[in-house]
Amino acid sequence: MQIQDFMNSSLYKRRQRINAIMLTLTAVAVVIGLVWLVWILWSLLSKGLPALSVNLFTHNQPTMGEEGGGLKNAIVGSLMMVGTATLITTPVGILAGTYLAEYGRNNTLTRVVRFVNDILLSAPSITIGMFAFILFYFGLGLGGHANSGWSGSIALAIVMLPVVVRTTDDMLKLVPNGLREAAVALGCPYWKMIFMICYRSAKTGMLTGLLLGIARIFGETAPLIVTAVGNNFFSTDMSQRMASLPKVILDFAMSPDDNWRTLAWGGAMLITLFVLFINISTRAIAARGK
Amino acid sequence: MSLSSTQTVRKSWLDSAFKNLTLVNAWLVLLIIIAIIGSLAYSASDTFKTQGMAFLWRDAWDVGANEYGALGPIVGTLLTAGIAIVLALPVSFGIAIFLTELSPTWLRRPLATAIELLAAIPSIIYGMWGLFVLAPLFAKYVQPFLMATIGKLPFIGQFFAAPVLGVGVFTAGVVLSIMIVPFITAVLRDVFELVPPMLKESAYGLGGTTWEVVRHVVIPYTRIGAVGGTILGLGRALGETMAVTFVIGNAHGLNTSLFAPGNSIASTIANEFAEASDAHLSALMALALVLFLITTIVLSLAKLLLARLDTK
Lengths: 290, 312
Fold this sequence. Notes:
The complex is a heterodimer.
Chain A: H1 2-8, H2 10-48, H3 55-58, H4 72-104, H5 108-122, H6 125-137, H7 149-174, H8 177-185, H9 190-218, H10 222-226, H11 245-253, H12 258-289
Chain B: H1 5-51, E1 61-62, E2 67-68, H2 71-102, H3 105-120, H4 123-148, H5 169-192, H6 197-205, H7 210-221, H8 223-239, H9 242-247, H10 265-272, H11 278-310
Antiparallel strand pairs in B: 1-2
């Protein structure tokens, strides 16, 4: 049989062999990716869980050599700065995204802003931090010190902004035009149409964008090194240096003190679990919406 | 006209007010990036005045003598990002092929999510993990092995000969590669899905194996997008700060060995910013400006390549 001859030919066998080898390699690549993820999470849990206790949330950071202690001042500092950044970024990002999707659609300004926004999305966060530092350093009447909770919040807000702009733009573009036309045909003013129809339809997606933005800045360290710097004591004064979880983790992890290192792993585990929780739940929301 | 004139006037007033409000905020995004470049350039101007343009290619970093040169950090930045790309590309490629061509449908979503979660982990976590978990293993097993094998080769060997510390340029590159895998994979998956099923079906119809279809149909069809995705990954790796700061070893000066400690632009800034003032601070601002410009150019290139794909 000719088919039999073909199947037995060395060329056919060689091709089959190469195919099997390459396909196995792609599976190996997947395994490599998963191994990294599991390994990192395992390290975090095995080293972070011993630090987990009520004290972590109710005690301030200890001095070197002191036993116990927690990360209360850092957690509060992080929440205040991330919260302020969110309050600044949410209206700006949503309004900018609204222009891109509703008014500008495909004009030159929109194309340029979309382009710049994507660059900003991947820009090194430490340079954004330095920009916030300069903004306060040269005064500009912003008040507060260059190393303060305010400058940290501004830096985080700029890191978060492109995420919100991008998702708002993308989500509004998904709203069917028929809905807009129906509203306008009934005599609805344009701004009302955007609020009552577009925002309402894109609500879930826009919320997802906000949450992802918060998750992103919650673990940001580099911009805070050059702005808020950190504070060894409990402080809610935004015009002074302010503690934050990532910065305390950085300081404690690099120290020779065992207690500090344990706390650093505890904090690292908290941040990662929080960030992964937001990411997974937004995916679940998005999947349910489809 | 059935509408009374006052109603129309009020409506158009609110309409244009809201439109202008969104317009101002769109401009703000544009202004921010201009302001970043402008303010960094202004703060860095002292350095370029005192050190001249030689700042860019001189290998000197002496705070006491006010001598600054960016060559060391620039080389460190490019080297770590280069290593990251070389290691991340085949892995991302394999994952993207598996997810688009081989994986059963029910497995696709969970697998893709797991890989994307790698991108969500904050970079400081990668840094800690790299320093405390990966670096000791590198010092104990990986580096001695590489020195005993590749290190023995003529010429190439010098890049793998050094004191075995675990931390260094090579380790930073490896950690960066893990961080950029999800970004490259995401782009590759998107572009692989753009290949018309008809093309693939015809290749299968001719008797091609899965690999042959990937090699001769999918890859050529998606080349531009794949290059764009790779450059996007490069842009990410160039600007990464915390992960590199933890594991690169933070030493000034050029070194031929990849195992030796070095520094990158971002890690230099992260390490020295707190103690810097005056000329030193300006030198760090100049470094930041260089980094921002490099990443902006690289990311623009990636965007342009990927945009060409969209219009196809």
